[in-house]
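Give me structure tokens for this 530-residue protein.
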Amino acid sequence: MKTLSKRKKNWIERTVANDRSYKLFLYNRFFIFLLAVVAQLVGIGLFLYLLVYHSAAALALQSTLFVLELVFVLYIINHHDRPSSRLNWIILILLVPVFGVPMYVMNGRGRPTRKMQGKITKAKEENAEKMRELYGEIKIPEPQTRGEAISRYLAQFGRYPVFSNGTVEYYKCGEEMFPVMLEEMKKAEKFILVEYFIIAHGKMWGEILKVLLEKAMQGVQIRIIYDDFGCMMTLPPKYERYLESLHENIKCFTFNTVVPFFAVRMNNRDHRKILVVDGKVAFTGGINLADEYIAEKERFGYWKDTGLKLTGDCVRSFTQMFFYLWNAFRKDKEDIGDYLLPDSNEKREGFSVQPYDDSPLDRISTGETVYLDIISRASKYVWIFTPYLVLDDTLRAALCQAAARGVDVRIVTPGIPDKKTVFRLTRANYGLLMKAGVHIYEYTPGFIHAKSMISDDTCGVVGTINLDYRSLYHHFENAVYFSGCEAVSALKRDCEETFAVCKECTPENTKRGLLGRLVDSVLRVFETLL
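Here you go.
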């Protein structure tokens, strides 16, 4: 691997410094987007008001709206598979049809547009064919124990195999994982894959970009994906072009570009967090590339998150996830075979790791299925970190039933919320859960962004999947299911340390007045939109 001259290193330093200040001279897209959406809402509302109340056709229009809402209600009753959200949509459509019907069309089913779905499905199939060519058919494990049953599900329906080699290292915060990420990127000889929901100017991205530029100049291939909505307030427009202009070995694309008008595809965001180096090591978890994740910037108190570093054959699952999105939307498609390593054929007894993803391409929420399985088979305890607790009936019932049968169910939510409306909905779930015996803790140092679950000292999950409707049904997500490794013990220790700095919630200290309960009841109708 060639080294860089002092002149080239100085150029990289200047480039990174300019990148950090680049945003200061550009308008903030979020406010322009918000202004355009508000203008549309005002225009539509004014048009409907004039049409209904100042038109001879008002009666005919009202009759048409009644028929339309009836059709949609019947459709929801017969086709919607989640009882709680089904009821929410029916109430919304019956009360405010002018608002409810278009919102259901945009948000109700959760699926991407046919165009997006077609592109991604084709890229997935091409990836799968290449994987079969290189590694053969995925081995479906026999479910000799209940723990292996979920691995069978992930292999059979998610198409991600179980691996029993390599390592899984757990990190209880971003500032612990970040130096390790940099160290591994500096070792890159062939390629680095970067896919994140949020990339923000600051120390974290500045140091990463510096390494990426150095590596690109040494011949390493750099591929970057970031979500446009996630970076709306953190990166300037067309930032991907700026990155590609820095070096020919850097290629980048923005996932699902935000447009300032209502569109179904705007719901489907790339919420994944993936870093892959040379196919040898991968990082994932809830940690985005922004300074609050490494304690360099204070937002909502201390920002706690969790992450994993993985080595071994399982890294190729992350490469597979990355390239099905890349090849779906880039004209210059990549051969995934160029980014994969041969099978090591190593095995460790009792150890298993299974990266997987979740997407809105089908009606199955893989993320929720894994969570439900862990909760339902727990016999001693199940402990959960989540920033949002906006539950459907199935998850709520599973948690209550686990507590009722004597399982120690604990959930940690933020002490300082990032979204006050969602936090109200989170707290609205406390009462029923606590009544069933679930222990709720609020993280007093600040905001907990981690999405982690552990059960019975046997298995754990760390990833990007929140316990809310959007994360489970609208977004592209990823996570890792692991057992029989030190990471399970490390996650448990982190949970115990976190409980010690939390406030346990009780009916007394979370009591709401009549007005508060009324507000929460109204918000519950809109929880599938938040």
